Amino acid sequence: MSIKNTGANPLPSLELPKRWEFLEAAALKKGLKAEEFIEPIDTAAQHVDQLLRRVRTGGGGVFEVIYGLSGSGKTSFLKTLPKFFNEIRVIPFPRNLPLTDLPDFVESTYIYSETQKRIVVIERRDNPSSGDVTLSSEMFANLLETFRIPQGSAIVLWPITDHVTATEIAQRAWITGRDSVTDATTKGIYSFQGLPREKYFEIADNTSRNLTGDSLEAYGITNQNVPELLSGCETISDFFARIDAHSAAQNERTWSVLKERVRVHTWVVLPGDVVTAINSTVSSLTQGTRGRIDLDLIGEFIDRPDNKAVYIADWRTRRAGMAHLLRTIDLRLCPLPPNVALAAVRLFGDPGLKAKLKQGSVNIDAAKDTMKSCRLYKQILIEAGIETTAFAGAREVSRETSDEYRRIQATANVTDKPLNKALGDLIALCLADDAPDLQVISEKRSLPLSQLQPDIQIKLGEGEYICLEPTWRSTDVGIVDELAGGQNTLAEAHLKKYVLDKATQYVKDLGL
User: Fold this and answer.
1) What is the pLDDT of residue 199?
2) What is the pTM of this model?
3) 179: which strand partners?
4) Cβ density class 139-169: b for 16+ within 10 Å, e for less
5) Helix (H, G, I), strand (E, B), or coil: what is residue 70?
6) How many other β-carbons are positioned within 10 Å of the β-carbon of residue 257?
7) Domain boundaries, the chain
């Protein structure tokens, strides 16, 4: 038997924005502001502070070329100046205006009695045309006159990537007005070095976390890779490009294995008796709204020297690739409130299960509504590319509902197969309405070319499956005169072991 995953590699790929415009757009899609995760460049900031002091104390204006290699972070630095300086206003001089308009533009942005100092940035002329260079002499003569009036009390910065051009323009400014136009120390040109190389990885990791929700480890990039990736990089943009290439190569190696087997979404489902306890455990082990396992927390857990468990030792041998592997199998922990579990058992449970309940039946539409409103079901629809309403949150249930759940959970110590089958059958019934093309298998059956037998399989397409692995848990609360309270199996420590054990099974079976 063969699996034909012949399409494009579907594994999550990394693409770090290498220019400010791309970073700004990517951040906006996430509802973020790019400047929120830009790091300060101390040496450049100190120089801007020096220019600001000149404008504040001496009056007049000052011009400066900011020379730096393409990709060194000039634009990012200039765009985020308001984050690091108080009482300034950064104003872009648009690309569509001729350079000769700059003096009038500086004057027009003056606001009487304004306390903020203006920084005018000449935009999108990092590689000036020969015409711009030629016009600069005339422009500087007029700019000198503007700098001599109150309306000209501003800093004008021109980021340029070519050293020869940057030097020529700075010399024209210096010759035109010397220290009446430029800073006497720099004579109109500041060499922008960008961030130090030792910060590149930290910045890249922070950018990845903000834009994707994951660290670089999830994309196969660890501290061990840094020396090799840094070699030959002149700018942080070079480093970002190296990271993207390395991550893409790692993805292709992983996909070369999976495309011959199956692609799995490994979702541990957590039914429990108390909603707050379920949610507390899930939130402590996951990140974001999709229930994805918190890679940092798991990594710290594995790295603890006092942790001698056998299943931890196996993960330590895979430590460098741990995050990438857990994201590859899409390891999640999904909460399942007791009322949803009960709806499944009341509708599809076998007679032995139903006999344990005080209310052994449920209206079919009520059962479907209960399932369709829960987070797990909505995540299934999202993974299948089907639009659904937002999850409204799970409400705490009554003591009676919790007790009913405890009655059926007690049977899981002997076997959970009837519970899993009832849950799978209710999911299948609901998907028949919303996603009839999806196939649900609610009994133990091996995945193609695999020894894995998920409790519930949902076939999304050829060679791709959501594998639901319910683990039926409860708190230590019993039922008076009926069930004694026991160990709180909903606790975080219990779930860590189960989740990592399950992940080990999938990673080993898939040959990753």
Assistant:
1) 94
2) 0.86
3) none
4) bbebbbebbeeebbbbbbbbbbbeeebbbbb
5) coil
6) 12
7) 40-191, 199-257, 263-509
